[in-house]
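Researcher: Structure prediction, please.
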Amino acid sequence: MKKGHVSHLSEVTAGGVVAAIEGRAGQLPQVSLAYEPEHKLLWITMRPEPKPVLTLSLIESIRNVQLAVWSLWERQPDRPILFMAVRSRGRVYSLGGDLDFYLDCLARNDRAGLSHYARVASDVILMSRNGLNGSVITLSNVHARVMGGGIDSARGCNVMVAEEEATFTYPEVNYNHFPISAVPILSRHAGPIQAEKILLSGQDYTAAEFHDRGVIDALVPKGTGEDWIRRYTVGTQGTHAARVAVMAAFNAQAGDLATALDTAASAWVSHLLNLHPLEISKLQRIAAAQERMLGRLLRPVQGGAGA
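Model: Predicted structure follows.
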C-alpha cells in the first residue's frame, strides 16, 4: 500500500484514515482531525490562534484537508469518507476574517497577500459547496457566536446546523467593509433581497431568526448539533449518491459559483486597498473590539477547564 493511502474499507480505522490524510496534506496547523468509521464522517475542528478568526494558516489547512480527501478517495467506489463536517470549540464559533492580517497587508500595500487570502478562502467555500467535486456531503455545526466571514465558511457547506444559542452578525458594513464571500453564498439561501438586508443591517440575529430566513438548514438545542450530524449520516448513507446529485443540480441552477466567488474576491481586495487612512482606522477598531469581546467571553471561565 502506498504511503498516505487507505486502499480498502477493510483497512479503515480512525487512525489510519487520519494518518492517510495527514500524509497527503502535510502539516495542518490550527486544525485537528477526527474520523468516525461507523458514520463515514471526518470532523475538522478549527483551532485558530491567537484568537478565533479565519487565519490564513487555518483556511490553508482546511483547503489542504479537502484536497487530500479528494485525491485519496475520489475515484474509489467504497470511500471511507462520505461526510465531512466542520466545527469549533469554546465560547465563540468564529469572529470572521483575520483583521490583523488584513491590516498588516495594508500597511505594506501587499495586494498579493490579500489576493492569496481571498483566493484560499474562496477555494475552501467552493470545495465545500461542490462536496469535493461530488465526493462527499459537507456539513457545519455552529454552536456559538459567529460573525462575518465565519458565517460564510459555515454556510458554504451543503448542510448548516446551528444550535439555539448561536448568534449571527455581519458587522462589517458599520466599518465600511464587507466579507469576501457573503453575497454569492448568503443569497443562495436567503435570496438576494433578504441577503442584502442582512448584510446592510449590521445587526445581530438569533439562530431562530436566521433559520426563519432560510440561512440555516437545521436548528437544534444547545449541545446537540454534533449528534444531529451523526444521525444525518446514518439516515442518509443509503441515499448519498442521489443527494449529492441533487445538490449538484441545484448548485448548477443557482449559477457559476466559481466565477461569482472570484468576482467577489477581486472586489474585496480592491476595496481594502482603496480604503482611506480614516477607514483603515475603523478596521483597527474592529480588531480591538474583537479583543474586548474575547475578554468578556473568557472572563467567566478563567481558572476552569478548557474547552
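Model: The first helix runs from residue 14 to 25.
Researcher: Thanks, that helps.
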